[in-house]
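Let's practice the habit of predicting before peeking. Look at the sequence and jot down your guess about where helices and strands might fall. Then scroll down.
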Amino acid sequence: MQFHSTRNPNVTVSFAHAVLDCMASDGGLYVPAYEENLRPWILYMNSGTTFASLAGALTSALIKEEFSPIISEAIATRAFPFSPEIRQLDDSLYALELFHGPTGSHKDFGVSYLASCLEHILLMQNRRAIVFAISDGGIAPSVVYALRNAKHLKAVILFPEGQSYGFTAEDCIWNGGNIYPVEVAGTTSDCHAITKELFAHRDIIEKYNITLANTANIGRLLPQAFFYTFAFSRLKEQVYGDIYYALAAGNYSNLVAGLYSWKFSLPVNGFITDSTPALGVDASGKCQMLDSFVPVEKRYAADPGSPSNLERLEEVFLTMPAVMRGLVYPSKITDKDRESACKNLFMKYGLFADPATSGAYASAIKRAEMIRADDGAVVLVMRDHPAFEAERIRQWCGEAPSMPEVISAMHMYHPACKQILTGGLPELEQVLAEVSRE
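Done guessing? Here is the structure:
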């Protein structure tokens, strides 16, 4: 498979190029350059297919020009000693739980896959690289876990001052590990500002071979498409009607990945999500993505620190607008809808749901007539462990989930940063130079 930038579909690059040089030089984000028919692989998989085997087979089918079947299987096996889980709640409702990785976040899957792919690519190229991340959104523990024992990768993670977490002293580069945690004097916004400044200097990016751990990197986003194939492999012998996925909008990464899975020939009838100012419904209730006033070629470069994936979503809509209006179903929901949905899931199924999952379920409730008309089933996508939102759930339900100790340990504060940045990019480049020497 080849990839092109959202700003220029006429120039394609390899998967290795797209994951290593993850921000296109024209300021866009990399997307698949064409559709793939993976139906023979998808229909072959069943409830006995492990997630690692499924990921290996799909990797081999998608990246066949660069990875042999043996390499693809090795990438997936290293990446996924853990798996999503799917639970049947009633005859037409299932929960796809993506929080069974080591840190309780769906990010574990994308980051671990990215790290495994990079290790194999760098081994073949006899190179090393630096993975760059900002701690917001809970990604730091996922990066730390994924890079343990990596031979060709090290990571620089930025934390707001006094908020470092997700690693141990043994993980730090100066103790033989792969992580260089850096505190930035200021807030998360300051971390984003310095990241944007860094990626504006392509000479520095190329000098130290820096790539990103967030979903700006297509190597982090692509494996999220595997979630939907995994769910289908478990449901195809149980569900005879249409299958809809209800998911929180978030930064649109799971929605974009779901649409990619559909483009790869996964049988799916629609994605239900909460509407946002950017993605909503028109007067007839059909999906509508608001057109930007600024053409892509005249926009600022995509933000490397805070990818919204809106531009990827736009790219899908522009290439097939009529199809997309019949495949994505946003619903307008309120905070009261979220609270009611959270209570409903707890009272009916004993299921704890965070506000994001509750919003997805509330959206599905508002689309119930459409789902019933097609004798359909809904797969509720649960991204992160509900215990991260324990207090909100307690307010709504009177009870709350407890955090597993192993996950709690991964999110504890750790005052091990030996560097606090106060002077911006010049100081950060000194850190990068030190990491590259290790």
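How did you do? The first strand starts at residue 3 and ends at 5.
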